[in-house]
Automatic annotation (TrEMBL):
<protein>
    <submittedName>
        <fullName>UPF0303 protein</fullName>
    </submittedName>
</protein>
<dbReference type="InterPro" id="IPR010371">
    <property type="entry name" value="YBR137W-like"/>
</dbReference>
<dbReference type="InterPro" id="IPR038084">
    <property type="entry name" value="PduO/GlcC-like_sf"/>
</dbReference>
<dbReference type="InterPro" id="IPR005624">
    <property type="entry name" value="PduO/GlcC-like"/>
</dbReference>
<dbReference type="Pfam" id="PF03928">
    <property type="entry name" value="HbpS-like"/>
</dbReference>
């Protein structure tokens, strides 16, 4: 994946506002999209200290919950999409362990996308787990674009 494209994508996902109602709208959109496509995923939207939305869809497993938590931790820690963090790490030859981050709590695989609000910065992270990492990432991005377009 091209790092510069991920960086541009991140800048295009700037929301005017985000609160519990927006988290519910985004979560509902992601659930509907996943159910329509019969995707066995976990969907998680959280701040650094609070879960705003969580759903485990048919076919998902407890492992998906653990992956969602670990990917969310990466996005919250680095304030960047977990896919972008992973690409940067691989390109630089570094690992999360080099940063003092345990694999039991952090995973730099795609699927966790920061939620940035204009004039505020990162306020939350939306995460999908259960698909290949690029598909997890793309589903969250589609949801955020729908939220931006007031379609969620």
């Amino acid at each position: 994946m091209d790092i510069s494209l991920l960086e541009v994508e991140s800048k295009s996902l700037l929301l005017p506002a985000f609160d519990e109602v927006a988290a519910l709208r985004l979560g509902d959109w992601l659930v509907k999209a996943a159910l329509d496509a019969q995707l066995p995923v976990v969907i998680d939207i959280r701040t650094a200290n609070r879960t705003l939305f969580h759903a485990s869809l048919p076919g998902s497993s407890p492992d998906n919950d653990a992956w969602a938590r670990r990917k969310s931790n990466v996005a919250l820690h680095f304030q960047a999409a977990s896919l972008l963090v992973g690409e940067r790490m691989r390109r630089s030859g570094r690992t999360l362990a080099d940063q003092g981050l345990a694999a039991s709590d952090y995973a730099d695989h795609g699927g966790a996308v920061p939620i940035h609000v204009k004039g505020t910065g990162m306020v939350a992270v939306a995460t999908v787990s259960g698909l290949p990492q690029l598909e997890d990432h793309r589903l969250v991005v589609r949801g955020l674009k729908a939220l931006l377009a007031n379609e969620a």
